[in-house]
Amino acid sequence: MERSQVEQRVVKVTCQVLGVDAAMVQPDSHFVFDLGAESTQSVELVAAFDGEFDIEMDEDAALQVETVGAAVEFITASLA
Amino acid sequence: MTEKYNSHPLVDATEPNLLEDTFDYGLPPLIRFDGPMIEHVDGKPVEFDPGALKTRPIVITDTTFRDGQQARPPYAVDQMVRIYDLLAKLGGPRGVIRQTEFFLYTANDRETLDRCRELGHKYPECTGWIRAVKGDFRLVKEAQLAESGMLTSCSDYHIFQKLKFKSRRECMDSYCEVVDAAFEAGVRPRCHLEDVTRADIDGFVLPFVERLMRMSEQAPEYLAAKVRLCDTMGFGVSFPGVELPRSIPKLIYKLNREVGVPGDRLEWHGHNDFHKVHTNAAAAWLYGCDAVNTTLFGFGERTGNPPLEAAIIEYISLKGDLCGINTEIITELADYMRSIGLPIPDHYPLVGKAFNTTRAGIHAGGLRQDERIYNIFDTTKLLGRPPRVSLTDKSGADGVAHWVNEFFGLTGDDRISMIKCHKVARWVTDQYKEGRMTAISDEELEQQVKELMPEYWEKYKG
Predict the structure, then answer these.
(1) pLDDT band at B2, cuts 50/70/90?
(2) What ipTM, to 2 d.p.?
(3) Would you place residue B383 in the very low, low, confident or very high pLDDT band (cuts 50, 70, 90)?
(4) How far apart are the C-alpha atoms of B149 and B182, rounded to whole Å?
(5) Which stretch of DSSP H or E encloses residue B236?
């Protein structure tokens, strides 16, 4: 999958789970500080990414990811 | 003035040092000593060797049926027999729970004693408890008991204000007459020095006990008087440097080394009026008193006595070995006591419903990674009680995952990840967003897991 496609779908899932506008979701947006992700939402985000990309990410590593750009990197690597 | 401090350079490590010599997870944490304890007695330093506890014949005695029963409506005979049976199993064949004492005044008292003895346990040995009245030894003799406690109150509050003796001498003579009656009846007297931590130690306690020792020299060894130090109002203090009569180290030193009461004839009986009860009992062991008197779950007159189950855990911590103790019986005893109406608070150590239950998500996260992080010892093995998580707004997804895995009985690689529990975590979060103020019950969670994680329900509960 192309990186741009991954990025597009990460933005879509982030907007759905966190209830934010797509314009707010930039590569350097921090899930917690910029997008307001609460503890349970962080877990829901990882679950939603798993479902969206049909992958099973390592839980501890996935929860260490802090920004949208880093999530794109992490998922792209998982898909490779 | 320049203060000088020692330098403490970092000892860097890439592997953890979990101090497992002390914190062997399979046992309660060991209490290890690295030197003597020093107390100043009459202006001179005196050493006590706590290391000797490893080999000293320390024991636990029980007064659940005497002091314990003074704090509640009477037990039924069947209940006492059941408790006695469980005490025997808990203390094991080496008799760590060495004795328990019974009232002898009613037909029910005597029936209980008979039925307990019919069980055939060597330990706890059954002893009696009577007033300091000569005629009462007839009851002890008829019950064929080898030993009985007798009340020998020793503070002036009791001697003059309660018992109305005209003088200390009259009081002492009266007690000694009863001790003589015990010897004549062939019963070992155990003199309960009531209110000793509020007594005139030099003026009454030491002369009385000295006389007891002289009298005992004239009797066969198996009848030699025992001495129970009764901290009736919980005034005893274990810290070094405290003056008599409140100092536990000094009291034991005086009786043991100055008056010559051997450690195996000394017993500590405490009360919890100042929250010191268990530590005081342990201190009594440390300073030379071999027996500590306890009640199950600390139930006793007013604020209660040293809790027997805490003394059991302390015993193992000091000895470094289970010594034949069956610790799982502690949980069985608690369940039984609850079933007959004895309330045990949820936060009560070792047996309360929440004693190893965490509510904080960050603690649940720790438990998920290594249960030793937030569990005191292997409570599953020793008490049949795995660490648990109770869910509130502070529990987080970590707490939910811990609960789910415990519910399904999953460990190690079989554990379900936090991510897979996210729907239940969302339900919990929403409960509190909507204003809930109470913890979530196991039944509610079970229902949510069934609905929101049907594939796992089918796999593990279907």
Answers:
(1) low
(2) 0.92
(3) very high
(4) 10
(5) none
Q: Cβ B361–A59 below 8 Å, yes or no?
A: no
Cα-Cα-Cα-Cα torsion B128, B129, B130, B132, nearest 10 degrees, comes to: 110
CATH H superfamily, domain A3-79: ACP-like (1.10.1200.10)
B361 shares contact with chain A (CB less than 8 Å): yes
Distance from CA of A3 to the nearest CA of B (A): 24
Domains in chain B, please, with CATH?
37-339 (3.20.20.70), 357-460 (no CATH)
Task: With 0.80 as the threshold, say if the pTM is over it.
Answer: yes
Residues of B in contact with A62 (CB under 8 A): 419
CB atoms within 10 A of CB A26: 13
Quote the CA–CA distance of B69 and B376 in Å, as a whole number.
31
Could you report the per-residue pLDDT of B292-302, keeping only the tens digit for each?
Answer: 999 999 999 99
B50's CB contacts (< 8 A; 6+ apart) are B33, B36, B37, B286
- Say if residues B365 and A60 touch (Cβ distance below 8 Å): no
Question: Are B418 and A40 within 8 A, CB to CB?
Answer: no
Tens digits of per-residue pLDDT, B208-262?
Answer: 999 999 999 999 999 999 999 999 999 999 999 999 999 999 999 999 999 999 9
B396 touches chain A (CB under 8 A): yes
Give, in order, the Cα–Cα distances in Å from B32 to each of B35, B286, B317.
9, 12, 9
Closest CA to B127 of B112, B138, B137, B113: B113
**CB contact set of B75 (below 8 Å; sequence gap of 6+):** B65, B69, B83, B340
Helix residue ranges, H only, B328-441: 328-339, 361-369, 379-383, 396-408, 422-433
Residue A59 to residue B349: CA distance in whole angstroms: 34
